[in-house]
Amino acid sequence: DQCPHCQISCCQNHLDTHRLGEFCQPWRVEEMEGVGRILVASRDISAWEKVVYDEAVVVAPADSPVCLGCLSKVDGSITCSKCQWLMCSKDCENSPHHLEECSLHRERKMVPNVSSYGGRHWAYSALAVQRLLLSSRASPRTEQAVSVLMDHWETRRRNEQVCKALQDMVAFFNKCLGLEWVTLGDVQKAFGVLKTNAVGFAGREGRALFPLVSILSHSCYANLEPIEEPNETATFRAKRKIRKGDELSMRYTTCLKSKHIIQELLKKEWLFDCSCLRCSDQTEFNSYFSSKQCSCGQYFLKQEGGADGSSMLVCGGCRAELDFPSQINREKQLLADISNLAEDKVLEIEDSLKKEGYHQNHHIIMAMYMRYLETVDIKDESDLIKVSRCSKRILDVLNLIDPGCTKLIGKYLSLMLEADTRLVQEKKKRGELEDDQYRLGIKQIVQGKLMAAKLQSKFCK
User: Fold this and answer.
1) CA angle, corner 295, sides to 291 and 298, nearest 5?
2) Can you tell me the mean pLDDT for 124-137?
């Protein structure tokens, strides 16, 4: 079958997913050996285009006690009048997400004993799995969508703690909740699918499972970006031009960390080794973002296969060596130290860091600039100059490692231009600018601010 509007091959069962109102989603699903299902551009896509729209099949807590209506934090002062589970307000007890479980918990008199509202609690981990199981049982379409998602169970089963916890979860569902139809295989699949594919919510202890977003591959050089934090829906726009046949991708984590630290996180949380364009390029698009600079002027790059199987960092010029694990631990400690620095101390360490080999494009220097911009209380012109300088350096690096119409570029462009506006005004007050120069400067800044606002907005075409 074909879509009558864009002629892409599409079966009748999935036509309503492909065609949303007047919008045809410009991708198709393909199989990639060793990876599984991926989304591929079905035509050339321009920057700013809406590319993927998806609706969550389940919205659920992460692992901590939260309101079961909106997933906001709770303090224990309000509970559901029917099932007695924690809520943030009485309005939330009528949330459609909570209705089925509410009836079940009330009938079985199942109320968790919560002593800490900020820590993990097994009942909330179980509730996420329970919601997915109930949703799949109620909707054949959800069941089919979940059945083809990756769960990495072959890897997860090696963790004895996880296996024991899931066995206990099955017993809880069967005996305490009376869900006798739930099997260990059901729980293993639901748990693995959520751990592998669920998207976390910013500012809330919750997550959502999106069938299409789950197919999007990770790339540290992703070509898609969400127009806002995912909630019950998710919309992604193109950051750059995407050619027909290119794989569509998103970032699972920030791009502003060392690729070695990112790879470590991806392996731990998502159980795969990243081989994206950025990770495959030792120079990271000539930014050397994750590489220290040697005193000879060249950069230390990772090499595998020491005599004892260890990894080393080897200078591309003089062939000097650094121990890779020691260097990563050093950088993690520096990041922790920088995150705790007060405003007046942040930029004081810049010279010493650069003498140590952390050059102007290095992620440690970027972390320092970002910390300064987070903490600065602008008091005088010297502070404005520092804000402008730090913002510009971050923008220069972002345009190397993550270019395009991104919200992050919009954020730092806005900070730089706000400082530049005040600097231009100060120069005008001192008579250092003619009227024509001042008007031209302000005009250029206003144009830049409009672009910054657009980048940070939900705009897509």
Assistant:
1) 50
2) 96
